[in-house]
Amino acid sequence: MSVISLKEPEVAIREVRLGSITGFEGTAGELVQCARTGKLQDNARQFSQCMGCSSGNAFCQLSMIQDAVVVNHAPVGCAGDVFGFNFVYRVGQMERNLPPVIGRYFNTNIEEQDTIFGATQKLEDTIREAYTRVKPKAIFITTSCASGIIGDDVEGVANALTEELGIPVVACFCEGFKSKIWTTGFDSAYHAIVRKIVKPPLKKSNKVNIINFWGSHIFDDLLKPLGYEPDYIVPFSTVGQLERISEAVATIQVCPTLGSYLGAALEQVYGVPEIKAPPAYGLRGTDNWLRELGRVLDREDQIETLINKEHARVLPLLGDYRKQLEGKTAYITAGAAHGHALIALLRELGMTVQGAAIFHHDPLYDNGDTASDALAHAVNTYGDIANYNVCNKQAYELVNILNRVRPDIMIARHGGMTLWGAKLGIPTLLIGDEHFSFGYQGLLNYAERILETLDNKEFVTNLAKHSTMPYTKWWLEQNPFHFLGRNVHVEVY
Amino acid sequence: MSKYIEQPRYSCALGAQQSVVAIKRAVPILHAGPGCSGKISSLIGQGEGYAGGNTIPCTNASEADIVYGGEGKLRTVIDGAFQVIDADLYVVLTGCTSDIVGDDVGSVTGEYQEQGKPIVYAETGGFKSNNYVSHEVVIKAIIDQYVDCYKQAGKKTKGLVNVFSTIPYQDPYWNGNLEELKRILSGIGLTVNILFGADSGGVEEWKTIPEAEFNLVVSAWAGLGIAKHLEEKYGTPYFHFPYLPVGGLETSKFLRQVAEFTGADKEKTEAFIWSEEEKFYMHIERTADFMLEFRYGIPRRFYSLLDASYAIGFAKYLLNELGIIPARQYIIDDTPEEFQEAIREQFHRISDQRSAEVRFIVDAGAIQQEIRQDAHKHRSLILGSGWERDLAKEIGADLLILSVPVSYRLVLNCGYTGYRGGLRVIEDIYDRVLDTYR
Ligand code: SF4
Questions:
Q1: Which one, A58, A172, B49, B144, has the greatest CB density within 10 A?
Q2: Nearest to A278, CA basis, from A337, A330, A322, A326
Q3: Distance between CA atoms of B177 and A32, rounded to whole angstroms?
Q4: In the predicted model, is pLDDT for residue A488 greater than 60?
Q5: Domain ranges in chain A?
Q6: Tell me, what's the pLDDT at A2?
């Protein structure tokens, strides 16, 4: 279990805190085994393609707090992703009937001379200007490789400006070079929030924190009849709302890769219990998760009734889908926790999972509880998965594998990967809303989408016919893990 | 003065990775942090192209590379790139991490160059400049370290011109714009090295850069350095047309000046201009009644938040050929001091009777505040980016997105340059205007 310490301005990266890795080749069972016995070792790659970085993931969580602004202390290029998040923010406003506003994001524009003389003055000026322009309730500073290497005292500036402006000005340390696991950026953002925004509870509320991205509000129907109110965090919340998340009765995570740190921090620091069962994907996964929820919320009877009712509704429909999907093969690429969930879900539908390329692996989450280990659950419940590859968005490995495996369908959870399925003529499905497949209904939703995708071959067939392939013939004939684990720099990578 | 930016509209020096992606079968190799490439593609890269986006090899700088240096890792990634990626040209680009710690990327790349591999490098640490400037740096690097090896001493090809114009991906309509430039220049009898995009000839075309008789720079300032460099290096004279020619008037003017400079056949030039203008004005004439009579309000003046080449080109066209009057014009491309006066001058005499106010500001948040404060008596048009959606609504303006981030448009080969581009401008402006009616 990682011990949450709010004294430190920076949270330790996942590699150090959780022993997480980004390179592995083997079966899922072997991976779980290694992780449990402390034998997990990271394998570095000799050849790599661009990944993502923590600063983007930190920004992802901080950029949609309705009354906060973000100052990105970086050269202008590091802010290249801000419009993308603004777009997501605005789509979410539509879905939530909120008035249209743009995200207020500032970049300090670190330039050459700043790398010699430091850029703290620029940072201060930018924060003051952001304050004057927007009058926010809080300002978050996200750091960058450049600000980190030149050694700017960002924490010092944040503290001084907090005094001066009378609102929390909070440093979030998320330099890209620090970690190979960009989800570390989520931890950085949450650390900043728990450290400087969340206040000690005054009372207990009837709220349940839902740590999520910007998914649909599917928890309303579940929680309200039980007498609880969902509080969707962090995107689309307000600073005032975040101050009070310590008062909630429980915390739900739609994805522990996302919420690991926040869930554990709220439990350790403020005693808000975290639902530790893996998220509700697949029939058995949902049963399990709901029971845990019932236990924590003290609603066990109502939950049993719900489970029975839902089974009666869903099982016959599921039978139909299973018949149609039986024996179809799938390959998965996704982030860790969601990938595990997808594996369970597909097998529940009777499909054969031929393998998976999963972005990283956390042997355990911050709560240190093996009950949260979704991969172990998937393996124990449905059997082992061959070709389980931990691969941080390395498209070249994926293409090589797909070219061999040729599944009936490829399922991706993140952008940038689907192209490779399609170029090879393999129907490919990307699901953006992680709530889409949550719970019993989610299983049916997914089955429906898979059937639609399998049925729609025209586009990919034609695309494959006219596509170029930037990978060499040589490469496509190699073992996909040719470059894995032979790095001379393995101890320093 | 601080240069903070709200709403960035260009990338950092490393943004020139997209210039490499725009060369057929070329691939950038980044010696940079793990997130840089994705962030660049996110702002200035709709679609992966051949080997852009997630295909781009990268050393993904880690803490250890910062402490111990990252040259060893760069070597392994270059080795891998040659084995895995099927490309004609590999361009190593450095990011902040490498440039601050001072890796000797030149000597690492040099080892491969000595083996005769098609590889070059450029220092593009994010903080060094922006992608308008580093586009030049990268192109010069390719010419000096690669193209130059294939130069045949003294060989010149009559009528061959290299065109340096709009910056791929930073200009979302680069592909269409370059296609039209190539089409019209070919129309007056020139052979055109367009160098980027669907209509280019890839690395083989690049190899003929030294043989060109002339270089054409069609841009306010970005790219001028390349032409100057080539003049020194190969003695190639260059002609500078300081904006994108849009529509009949400006495109014909552009072609006549180019013909004059290059000595292209006069008759052929005039014949081409005549036939293009005939088509162009036939369409304008055909719809002039509509433009004059549409009663429910069409924009009367326009704001621009654009780079200099676009801003001048559009201002001339909108004013002189469509009768839409320039309101304040904002140049957001961080134009270096030395070029600002010439741009001011262009706006100063934007037509025979009129001058327009122009301001150079990179912080578009501040620009939006200024525009909000104006009195908005008439319907206006904003030529800007996806950031202007709400602003346009608030002040009752129509918005044509010409600058990144484009997000609300999907661009294939749409272009706004030349005769065809000019017509497209009209279609797209009125498409937006008419779409506001129920
Ligand atoms: S890796 Fe570093 S330099 Fe690159 S985008 Fe991330 S923070 Fe910026």
A1: A172
A2: A337
A3: 54
A4: no
A5: 52-179, 207-284, 294-490
A6: 75
What is the DSSP pairing of strand A138-142 with strand A169-172?
parallel
- Residue A79 in contact with ligand 1 by CB distance below 6 A: no
DSSP A63-120: TT-TTEEEEE-S-GGGGGGHHHHHHHHHHHHHHTTPPP----EEE----HHHHHH-SH
pLDDT (tens digit per residue) in A14-42:
999 999 998 888 999 999 988 888 778 88
What percentage of chain A's residues is helix, strand, coil (to nearest 5)?
A: 50, 15, 35
Percentage of chain A beyond pLDDT 90 is 76
Q: Domain-by-domain residue ranges, chain B?
A: 13-150, 157-282, 287-435
Place of tokens 């150090």: A16
Q: Are A304 and A294 in contact (CB under 8 A)?
A: yes
Which of B17, B31, B37, B39 for a ligand 1 pocket mutation test, highest count of atoms within 8 Å of Cβ? B39
Q: What is the CATH number of domain B157-282?
A: 3.40.50.1980
Topology classification of domain A294-490: Rossmann fold (3.40.50)
| CA dihedral (B239, B241, B244, B250) positive or negative | negative
B47: left (phi over 0), alpha (psi -120 to 50) or beta: left
Asked if A207-284 and A294-490 have one fold, the answer is yes
Q: Residue A326 is which amino acid?
A: E
Tell me how far the alpha carbon of residue A302 is from its chain's centroid: 31
Domain A52-179: top CATH class:
alpha beta
Find out whether A337 and A374 touch, Cβ atoms under 8 Å: yes
Does the beta carbon of B263 lie under 8 angstroms from any beta carbon of chain A? Answer: no
Query: Does the bond joining A3 to the residue before it have cis omega, within 30 degrees of 0?
Result: no
Residue in A126, A95, A92, A120 with CA at minimum distance from that of residue A108? A126
Residue that is written with structure tokens 């032979």 in the block = A486
The three-class DSSP label of residue B282 is helix
Quick check: B339 pLDDT over 80? yes
- Which residues is B426 bridged to in the sheet? none
DSSP A434-477: GGGG-HHHHHHHHHHHHHHHHH--HHHHHHHHT----B-HHHHH
CA-closest residue to ligand 1 atom 3:
A145
3-state secondary structure B77-136: HHHHHHHHECCCEEEEEECHHHHHHCCCHHHHHHHHHHCCCCEEEECCCHHHCEHHHHHH
CA distance A161 to A138: 11
Give B34's DSSP letter.
S
Q: Looking at chain B, which residue has its C-alpha nearest residue A69?
A: B6
d(CA B98, CA B94): 6
Distance CA A358, CA A375 (A): 11
Q: CB pairs under 8 A, 24+ apart, for A285-288?
A: A285/A341, A285/A344, A285/A345, A285/A377, A285/A381, A286/A310, A286/A439, A286/A440, A286/A443, A288/A377
Residue closest by Cα to atom 8 of ligand 1: A78
Query: Which positions in chain B touch A472 (Cβ < 8 Å)?
Result: 83-86
Q: Quote the ipTM score.
A: 0.95
Domain A207-284 is in which class? alpha beta
Between residues A189 and A385, which one has the greater pLDDT? A189
Q: Would you say the CB of residue B12 lies under 6 angstroms from ligand 1?
A: no
Closest-CA residue of chain B to A122:
B2
The domain over range B287-435 is classified in CATH as 3.30.950.10: no
- CB contacts under 8 A, B 270-329 vs A, are none
> What CATH topology corresponds to B13-150?
Rossmann fold (3.40.50)
* Segment holding B401, helix H or strand E: strand B397-401
Distances (CA, A) of B28 to A350, B17, B35, B90, B124: 43, 6, 15, 6, 12
| pLDDT tens digits along B185-226 | 999 999 999 999 999 999 999 999 999 999 999 999 999 999
User: B13-150 and B157-282 share one CATH topology?
Assistant: yes
Q: Which residues contact A402 (CB under 8 A, 6 or more apart)?
A: A331, A410, A420, A421, A424, A426
